[in-house]
Amino acid sequence: MSKIKTFAAIVLCLLTSYTQAQSIEVNASLDKNPVMEDESFNLTVVANADLANSAFDPSPLLKDFVVGRTSVSSQTKIVNFTTSKSITWTTVLIPKSKGRFTIPAFDIGGSKTQPIEVLVVPLSSASSQARDLFITTAIDLDKVYLQQQIHYTVKLHLAKDLQRGSLSSPTLENADIRQIGEDKEYNEIVNGKRYRIIERSFAIVPQQSGTFTIASPLFEGEVTDNNQQSFGFFNRSKSVNRRGPSQTIQVLPVPSNYQEHWLPSEFVQLDEEWQGNTQEYEAGEPITRTITLTAVGVIEEQLPAVGSQYPDSVKTYPDQAETATIEKDKTLIAQRKESIAIIPTQAGPLTIPEVKLAWFNTITQKTEYAVLPEKTLTILPASQANSSRPLPQVEQTPAPPPVISQPAIQGDAIAPIWQWLSLGLAGLWLITLSAWWWHFKHYKRPVSQLAPQVRRTESEQALWKILENALNKGQASDIHQALRAWLSHLTDKPEATLEQSLQQLASNDLNAQVSLVMASRYSQQTGSANTQGLHQILRKIRKVQRANHKKSNDLAPLYSNT
């Protein structure tokens, strides 16, 4: 008996579900038909059942229409104790082109809507004349080369007061699209009707060759609806959606005979700036050269690195390049700045080779070159002032000055006291000078008799202490001075520059670490240099030098006293 009851309950549920499915009715309708090519219309789908909001899927419409937002509303009615429910979906659609299209049937809750045929008519001057809102688009070129700028203009024409609104950007697959300049707003008479016009400009740089369609921006907003139902200050607003005409372009590929870096532009220029703006520099001193590449109608990502070359007699420390894209007169202008610190290692004429950069002129459709001519600099020998530049001193904590109690001296008594004090100091100075002359006369020895190795060791220790202090601080300018002094002492050439001392030692590891530290000195980035590797190599070099010095001192005398 229980099995029979269970079976009956299942059959009853199935019959109920089937009855409900049969009772669901769904209908689809349009608020206007035919429609203009650029205007929106509403698709409304109604079902007389309690269904989920996601029961309606408008994605099949994406092929022929731009699908806007979908609003959902539910309603419940009770009539003579009978409850009925319904749900309504309203979707905004905008045609992508003119022609005849079919709104397909939608399966909702097991029931299907009827397909609807919609006619999209093209715009004409007659139809635009009486319209209160429409969009126009324009491009300056419909045939361009790959990565060549297209100037795109969109105008929103308003004959009614705008309550609110938003205008999207045009869309093009595989393209860089940027708004240039600010919006312009002005009034204009079009076909005998006065319009308020909002104009916006874009720069479009296609990144792929072929034939493409630039989809127009979409306007969504509300305008004042001045009809007979409006009264007093309470004017009703009406939602509007408009889309302008699409633009078709042809993007040509890079010419097959072009072998250089692809840079299509109307104008490209190279400029340079030298530190001090002079032709004469000193060996061992850094010279900053700044090269600026400017190109019109491109974005900064398209600019190549400037291939500048330098002779082997200089060391170069390039800084990180700076790039930017600006807008001027509705045109993109890209710039790339490269700063390089050049250190000549020897005196004499220094010739900097010519810099040559290829680019494609989109006006003449020919390859052209931006050129920096060859430049010759005069490199003077390192001056005594530069080679003997004062080194940073080791920091020491000075002892506090003694506190001396002095009686207050006032009035005219100050002058006689200072006179007597000056005479006393002069006398002491004469006595000291006489004692030194007497000591020198009776006890002087030739300088050659002093132990040169002892003096050298003491001087080396002091210079090493200054160098270690500079390395610990990480300031590249202090390290440069201290390292020059210590290495020149190590190589027995006090007047040598840092580059000359490094050349004499011929240590690849040392040269590499010095280059890393010195690069931070000429960089525009602030911060301490990483000196651990340099400090470690210098300790090894010093250890070897001290071991060699000790070995030479431990040699047995050539002649014994026995």
In brief:
By secondary structure, this protein is an alpha+beta fold. Helix content is 25%, strand content 37%. The protein has helices at 2-23, 125-129, 384-387, 414-443, 452-473, 476-490, 498-505, 508-522, 532-553; strands at residues 26-30, 35-36, 41-47, 65-79, 82-95, 99-103, 107-108, 111-112, 116-121, 133-139, 143-145, 150-158, 162-167, 175-179, 184-190, 193-206, 210-214, 218-225, 236-243, 247-252, 264-265, 268-274, 280-282, 287-296, 314-318, 322-328, 331-344, 348-352, 355-361, 366-372, 375-380.
Relevant terms:
5-stranded antiparallel beta sheet, 37% strand, 562 residues, 31 strands, alpha+beta
Notes on the structure:
The protein has 562 residues and is α+β, with helices and mostly antiparallel strands. It is 25% helix and 37% strand. It contains nine helices and 31 strands. It has helices at residues 2-23, 125-129, 384-387, 414-443, 452-473, 476-490, 498-505, 508-522, 532-553, and strands at 26-30, 35-36, 41-47, 65-79, 82-95, 99-103, 107-108, 111-112, 116-121, 133-139, 143-145, 150-158, 162-167, 175-179, 184-190, 193-206, 210-214, 218-225, 236-243, 247-252, 264-265, 268-274, 280-282, 287-296, 314-318, 322-328, 331-344, 348-352, 355-361, 366-372, 375-380. Strands 10, 12, 14, 15 and 16 form a five-stranded antiparallel beta sheet that branches. β29 and β30 (366-372) form a beta hairpin. α5 (452-473) runs antiparallel to α6 and α6 (476-490) crosses α7. The longest helix has 30 residues, at 414-443. The protein is elongated and about 135 Å long.
